[in-house]
Write a structure and sequence with these properties.
With 128 residues, the protein is mainly alpha-helical. The chain contains seven helices and two strands; from the N terminus they run H-H-H-E-E-H-H-H-H. It comes from Streptomyces alboniger.
Length: 128
């Protein structure tokens, strides 16, 4: 997922409603010179990847996000990690770049994923 896809998705999330190619184009043109067909292609690619859904409106489409920014960020991280020839080393390098706040967020996420600190303790208690 490239920088332009990220920029387009940012607009789709920001507006939180179905958007047209023209709306995204006009917003992007405030930052860079870009063609209508480029934005149309990016939105079509995002649709094919399942990140946006589209609905016909006349001869054009309106696009809206299928999932959250968090899910998109997770997919980006997973894609980058899975392309590494040494996933463990990639994780070590990534964790080394993290700020203290990011490390705390990682610890919180791990606690959520792992569940209670003593999994199975309720079952063991019931067996007695």
């Amino acid at each position: 997922m490239g920088e332009l896809e990220d920029s387009v998705m940012t607009r789709v999330w920001k507006w939180n409603r179905p958007v047209t190619v023209r709306e995204v184009l006009e917003d992007l043109q405030q930052e860079r010179s870009i063609a209508y067909t480029t934005v149309m292609t990016v939105l079509d690619n995002l649709h094919q990847k399942g990140w946006v859904r589209r609905e016909a409106e006349g001869r054009a489409y309106r696009y809206e996000a299928v999932s959250t920014r968090a899910a998109y960020a997770a997919a980006l991280m997973n894609e980058a990690w899975s392309q590494s020839d040494n996933p463990a080393a990639a994780l070590v390098a990534f964790f080394g770049m993290m700020s203290e706040e990011q490390r705390e967020a990682l610890n919180d996420a791990m606690r959520i994923v792992q569940g209670p600190e003593n999994p199975g303790s309720a079952e063991r208690g019931a067996e007695r």
